[in-house]
Amino acid sequence: MSGVAVVTIAHGRHGHLAAQHRALARGTHLPDHYVVVAMDDPAIVDRRDGDLASRVVRTGRGPAGALPLAAARNLGVRTALDAGADVVVLLDVDCLAGAGLVAAYADVVRAHPGSVWSGPVTYLPPAPATGYPDDPSALAAWDDPHPARPHPAPGELLESADPDLFWSLSFALAAGTWQRTGGFCEDYVGYGGEDTDFARTVLAAGVGLGWVGGARAYHQHHPVSSPPVEHVDDILRNGRIFRARWGHWPMEGWLAAFEERGLVRRHHDDWVRTAAPSDARAKETA
């Protein structure tokens, strides 16, 4: 096996996906494979930008109409491995790859295949009228990695054994390491919990976690809810799965914020729904 694959999962976000493709096509090292998993989105099709072509594979929705984020990542990685990749980079559809991201991940994974490696992510301001630059080297002007995560400088590596610091926006690992971990737990459907679960699975498998400063990504701006009230039901369902697997609730900061808004309440060692998000927003604006 040889070659580097980038795997992205997407539903909607077509403009962000096209911008990601442009950035990858103009990096210092083109991926050998670019796999896009379209989740219930027939509008996402194979396309080419310069010398980089994407390959689209498809999946539907999970139970209750939720997007199967965990299963979609597993499908994307399986597709990449079947194509012969020995290094797999998983990149969120909102993330633009810095010019050296693919090269930095390829180098560190091949040199240190016993760990899962993450790179710093900068959250970009709204795009100017002309859009974000197509040249990924120009993104460095915005470089300001998220302060809640480790952010080593380019050329630096940092080991981190804290699974709560892992996130699925941007990370890479060797084919054999993926197989050793077993991938994402597909019991999780919809938003929240599956990436923190994966980090604990990684550590339980005897695999390390690390951060590589050269693999810098830039998260394209889009409106968000804080806390993500539209995902309350996903977070409650996935939180119960996480508690059953690991003995405690994840995402407790969000749960506390939902409780303040009257959306959920504690019931012994469980969290239960008390109101719909629209009800809570109405109370906030009344």
Automatic annotation (TrEMBL):
Superkingdom of this protein's organism: Bacteria
Family matches, as PANTHER family: GALACTOFURANOSYLTRANSFERASE GLFT2 (PTHR43179:SF12), RHAMNOSYLTRANSFERASE WBBL (PTHR43179)
The UniProt record lists the keyword Transferase: yes
Species lineage: Bacteria, Bacillati, Actinomycetota, Actinomycetes, Propionibacteriales
Pathway per the UniProt entry: Cell wall biogenesis; cell wall polysaccharide biosynthesis
Family: Belongs to the glycosyltransferase 2 family.
Keywords recorded for this protein, A-Z: Glycosyltransferase, Transferase
The Galactosyltransferase C-terminal domain, residue ranges: 171-222
Gene Ontology MF annotations: glycosyltransferase activity
InterPro entries: Galactosyl_T_C, Nucleotide-diphossugar_trans
Protein's name in the database: Galactosyltransferase-related protein
Pfam families registered for this protein in UniProt: Glyco_transf_7C
